[in-house]
Design brief:
The complex is a heterodimer of chains A (about 110) and B (about 120).
Chain A lengths: L3 E4 L2 E4 L5 E7 L7 E6 L6 E5 L3 E2 L7 E6 L2 E6 L9 E6 L6 E2 L3 E5 L1
Parallel strand pairs in A: 2-11
Antiparallel strand pairs in A: 1-3, 3-8, 4-5, 4-9, 5-6, 7-8, 9-10, 9-11
Chain B lengths: L2 E5 L2 E3 L5 E8 L8 E6 L5 E7 L5 E3 L7 E6 L4 E6 L8 E8 L6 E4 L3 E5 L2
Parallel strand pairs in B: 2-11
Antiparallel strand pairs in B: 1-3, 3-8, 4-5, 4-9, 5-6, 7-8, 9-10, 9-11
The chains are: A mainly beta (about 110), B mainly beta (about 120).
Chain lengths: ~110, ~120
């Protein structure tokens, strides 16, 4: 199966700063990559699909890039509501697999 | 409005069985790719099972032969029958709707906790 590796495990960022999260696939997933945000006690929420297409109602401060095996999620200016855990997930190869998550915490 | 509401979780002994339900509204379960995704306490997300609109089903290796996904079109509901439960099956189980014919999920329920412990 395709192993997804996210880095860093934890990212400490001050509000208003930029956050850059990375996701690497063990084999090419083309652009079939999704990003999710999960807050404590809540279900995941899809942010991005196709590596760079924002889901409906997702603010423009979230952007995604990459293809093949290297992907990035950027939050341009962190807001208080953005502190959460972020997961990448590939849906190109069977079975669908998730990364282990990056926790974005307040610095 | 799309809604998914899971139920059926609880505390179960190792080796026991449990059936989870997911009541859907705002769309037809029969017309969508529906999945179960789980999350062990403090851990990441793991896809468990999928049922396609065609009725074809697939399972993660970790649950194959023990879990069965199904749906009731008349009730617009999704189910997960879990047998021979193990401690490592302890998790919050989410019902999720796939986006079009893709294997990623645009709508999620709130989850139901399954605890396998003696």
């Amino acid at each position: 199966e395709t192993v997804m590796t996210q880095s860093p495990a934890t990212l400490s960022v001050s509000p208003g700063e930029r956050a850059t999260l990375s996701c690497r696939a063990s084999q090419s997933v083309s652009s079939n990559l999704a990003w999710y945000q999960q807050k404590p006690g809540q279900a995941p929420r899809v942010l991005m699909s196709g590596a760079s297409t924002r889901a409906p109602d997702i603010p423009a401060r979230f952007s995604g890039s990459g293809s093949g095996t290297e992907f990035t999620l950027t939050i341009s200016s962190l807001q208080s509501e953005d502190f959460a855990v972020y997961y990448c997930q590939q849906y190109n190869n069977w079975p669908p697999t998730f990364g282990q998550g990056t926790k974005v915490e307040i610095k | 409005e799309v809604q998914l509401v899971e139920s059926g979780g609880g505390l179960i002994l190792p080796g026991g069985s449990l059936r989870l339900s997911c009541a859907a509204s705002g769309f037809a379960v029969s017309s969508n790719y529906m999945s179960w995704v789980r999350q062990a306490p403090g851990k990441g997300l793991e896809w468990v099972s999928i049922i396609y609109s065609s009725g074809t089903t697939y399972y993660a290796d970790s649950v194959k032969g023990r879990f069965t996904i199904s749906r009731d079109n008349s009730k617009n509901a999704l189910y997960l029958q879990m047998n021979s439960l193990r401690a490592e099956d302890t998790a919050v189980y989410y019902c999720a709707r796939g986006k079009s014919s893709n294997w990623y999920w645009e709508y999620w329920g709130q989850g139901t906790l399954v605890t396998v412990s003696s």
